[in-house]
Write a structure and sequence with these properties.
Layout (H helix, E strand, L loop, with lengths): L1 H26 L12 E7 L6 H9 L6 E7 L6 H11 L5 E5 L6 H10 L5 E5 L3 E3 L3 H11 L3 E10 L5 H25 L9 E5 H6 L10 H11 L3 E12 L5 H21 L10 H33 L6 H22 L13 H25 L16 H6 L6
Parallel strand pairs: 1-2, 1-4, 2-3, 6-8
Antiparallel strand pairs: 4-7, 5-8, 6-7
Helix pairs in contact: 1-6, 1-10, 1-11, 6-11, 8-9, 9-12, 10-12
Length: about 400
């Protein structure tokens, strides 16, 4: 039974994502081409982002949506981020720009709360300071919010910018073949998503105020605020037409650290909302069930792998079901092909990325396994952790990476 669960769970979820994505694409309305005049307050939280901030702000100033105010928050950086902000304010005079300088480093959530206090718009856009937002992204996000007053926040689609080394290539495939498909499927089945992607989110100010802003004492402020908004009866949505280019970790160590933090944040949500598990009639509960099943799958897989290694050593033989492996490979191939078809133009994917599919299939599930198991152990032994951030290692600017995107292999 354990072996069947370990093999059938990823197969079942892959089929669910594919079916949900297909029907979401068939039933969702065509992307709106409308332009809006509402004032949007854009908060860009920063900590040691002197290498990327210029390109991020420049992309925001080139938005098709013209009624913007930028709020740049320096969370007590130790580099020249604050000086860069002042220079940008002088350079881009067309867009009103406010600089908020924190007296001490409090983390991303604290920076967002400080920025929200200076916001004048009824809509608040949060953008990471190492991303390049698509020129039409804000209008796409606004259209989603205006289409339904019950939607409190809508997130966009991240597309990987740096694709040089193998770790970056794997994440490029993951974002188009898994993360995008999962969110589309969640929208079809539950009209909600499990979590917002903090790199690009447009909030309704009323929804933010209803939950008193971001929680400064959690590891993942975007996951936390997603579920606090749901408890206040707000929906959170996904708009794949609103894209932003992002930088992802370039080393295995940095990637594992990031994913453990994500998994830890998800566990915090599961623990905080455990009562919902006894309300199976609510669509949001289905998302928690999937999260809980992932945890059980991870520990079951860890146990099974350990037993397999010991059994192989004792019996001096390796026993694998070739039909099951072939089925996993085929379904995964189909999933990636579907994701690539929907993203090949927007994400500027090369067909040669398809060659990495066999490696990618194992990459994702083993990454998920490591993240969940270590996050559970971390929660057991260090249950309280503040949401402070650390400075990222920036070897190249966003502008340099953007110029090389079409050459990605």
């Amino acid at each position: 039974m354990l072996t069947s669960f370990i093999l059938l769970y990823p197969l079942t979820m892959t089929l669910v994502w594919l079916i949900g994505t297909l029907f979401y694409r068939l039933t969702s309305p065509r992307p709106s081409q409308a332009t809006h005049t509402d004032l949007v307050s854009v908060i860009v939280p920063c900590y040691n982002e002197e290498a990327t901030l210029h390109e991020t702000v420049q992309a925001l100033c080139q938005q098709g949506h013209r009624n913007l105010e930028l709020i740049l928050v320096d969370d007590c950086s130790t580099d020249n981020t604050l000086l860069v902000m002042r220079a940008l304010k002088q350079k881009f005079r067309r867009v009103p720009m406010t600089i908020v300088a924190q007296s001490q480093n409090g983390g991303k959530a604290a920076a967002l709360n400080a920025g929200a206090k200076a916001a004048n718009g009824e809509y608040i856009l949060c953008v990471d300071s190492d991303s390049l937002i698509d020129p039409k992204a804000i209008d796409h996000l606004l259209s989603s919010l205006k289409a339904d007053d019950r939607v409190g926040a809508v997130t966009g689609k991240p597309v990987v910018l740096n694709r040089g080394v193998i770790v970056e290539k794997m994440q490029t495939m993951e974002y188009v073949a898994i993360i995008d498909l999962i969110k589309r499927a969640q929208m079809f089945f539950t009209a909600n998503i499990l979590t917002l992607s903090g790199v690009l989110v447009l909030y309704r100010k009323a929804a933010l105020q209803s939950v008193s802003g971001w929680n400064e004492n959690v590891q993942t402020e975007d996951i936390d605020i997603t579920w606090r908004m749901k408890l206040k009866k707000w929906r959170v949505a996904y708009q794949p037409q609103a894209t932003t280019w992002i930088l992802v970790p370039s080393t295995i160590k940095a990637l594992l650290k990031q994913r453990q933090r994500w998994a830890y944040g998800g566990l915090q949500v599961l623990v905080a909302n455990w009562r919902l598990l006894f309300r199976p009639w609510q669509p949001n509960t289905w998302l928690l069930y999937e999260m809980l099943t992932s945890i059980l799958w991870s520990f079951g897989t860890l146990f099974s792998m350990t037993f397999f290694v010991v059994s192989t050593f004792m019996n001096q033989a390796v026993q694998l079901d070739g039909n099951v492996i072939l089925m996993i490979f085929f379904i995964g191939l189909l999933q990636f092909f579907a994701g690539m078809l929907m993203s090949v133009k927007k994400a500027k994917l090369r067909l040669r990325m398809f060659l990495y599919t066999p490696m990618y299939l194992f990459f994702y599930w083993f990454l998920n396994l490591y993240s969940l198991v270590t996050a559970v152990l971390k929660m057991v032994y260090t249950p309280i952790e503040h949401g402070r951030w650390e400075s990222a290692d920036r070897s190249r600017s966003l502008g340099q990476m953007k110029g090389k995107t079409t050459d990605a292999r």
